[in-house]
Specification:
Blueprint (H helix, E strand, L loop, with lengths): L1 H19 L53 E6 L13 E7 L4 E6 L5 E7 L2 E6 L7 E6 L4 E4 L4 E6 L5 E7 L7 E2 H6 L7 H8 L3 H10 L1
Antiparallel strand pairs: 1-2, 2-9, 3-8, 3-10, 4-7, 4-9, 5-6, 5-8
Helix pairs in contact: 3-4
This protein binds 2-acetamido-2-deoxy-beta-D-glucopyranose.
2-acetamido-2-deoxy-beta-D-glucopyranose binds next to loops.
Length: about 220
C-alpha cells in the first residue's frame, strides 16, 4: 500500500512538472487580450467576452513579402498575441520569414516555444545546436513543402541557399515566444557587457570584441 502511495505521488509530481513546462491550459473558451487593461499577470487580461468580435481572432497580411534589405537579408513578420489579441492564453503563434538570396535568420533562441517550420518557396538550410556539453549541430537543407522542428530553447538558424527568394511559415508553441538573437544579446546589450569579460569568454583579443560591440 505504502509503495502505491509513493508511486502515485511520483507520477503526480512528474505530470505536474510536465504541465509546468508549457503554457497553462485555458480555463474558458477564450481570453482575448484587453490592450486597455493595466493588470499585471502571466499573459494579458481578458476582454469582456460579450464585446469580442471576429476581428479579435483575425490577422491579415502574411501574403505580403517582408523587406529583406538589411544586413542579414531576412525578415520575420510575426503574428503573436501583440498582433492578434485572440491568441492570448492559447499557447500558439505563427510567423512568415522571407529570405533574400543567401540571406540568413541569424542564430537565435525562443525561450518559451518550440518552432515548426515549413518552406513555401526556395531552398533553406536549417540547423540547431544541442545543449552542453555535446553542442552537436543538427542541420539539413529543406525544399518547398519540407517541415523541420526546432526544440524549445535551443539555438537555431536558417539560411537561403538558393539563388532566388525563399519563404517559410513557422508556428510556435507560445502566444509570445520571445526571441534572443545571440549576437545582439551578447555584443549589443545596453549597457554593454564588459569587453574584457567577453574577450575571455570568446578567447579573442579585446579589439575583436570592440569591433563586434561597435557593430551590434
Ligand atoms: C526596405 O528597407 C530599406 C532599409 O530600411 C529601405 O531603404 C527601403 O525603402 C525598404 N523598401 C520598401 C519597399 O519598403
Amino acid at each position: 500500500m505504502a509503495h502505491h502511495i509513493v508511486f502515485f505521488s511520483l507520477v503526480t509530481l512528474a505530470l505536474c512538472n510536465l504541465a509546468l513546462a508549457f503554457e497553462p491550459s485555458p480555463l474558458q473558451d477564450f481570453c482575448v487580450a484587453d490592450s486597455t487593461s493595466s493588470a499585471r499577470l502571466n499573459g494579458l487580461a481578458c476582454k469582456n467576452p460579450m464585446n469580442v468580435q471576429a476581428d479579435d481572432f483575425f490577422f491579415s497580411g502574411l501574403n505580403i513579402m517582408g523587406n529583406t534589405s538589411n544586413p542579414v537579408g531576412s525578415k520575420v513578420t510575426p503574428v503573436t498575441v501583440a498582433q492578434l489579441p485572440g491568441l492570448n492564453t492559447l499557447g500558439i503563434s505563427i510567423v512568415r520569414i522571407d529570405y533574400a538570396p543567401w540571406g540568413i535568420n541569424p542564430p537565435h533562441t525562443h525561450p518559451r516555444a518550440t518552432e515548426i517550420l515549413t518552406v513555401l518557396e526556395g531552398s533553406v538550410q536549417v540547423g540547431f545546436v544541442t545543449s552542453n556539453p555535446e553542442n552537436r549541430l543538427i542541420s539539413k537543407v529543406l525544399q518547398k513543402g519540407d517541415v523541420f522542428v526546432f526544440p524549445v530553447g535551443l539555438v537555431h538558424f536558417q539560411r537561403n541557399v538558393g539563388y532566388g527568394n525563399a519563404v517559410a511559415i513557422a508556428a510556435l508553441s507560445s502566444q509570445n515566444p520571445g526571441v534572443i538573437t545571440i549576437a545582439n544579446a551578447v555584443f549589443g546589450s545596453n549597457p554593454p557587457i564588459a569587453a574584457d569579460l567577453l574577450a575571455k569568454a570568446f578567447q579573442v583579443k579585446t579589439s575583436v570584441v570592440d569591433q563586434l560591440q561597435s557593430t551590434f
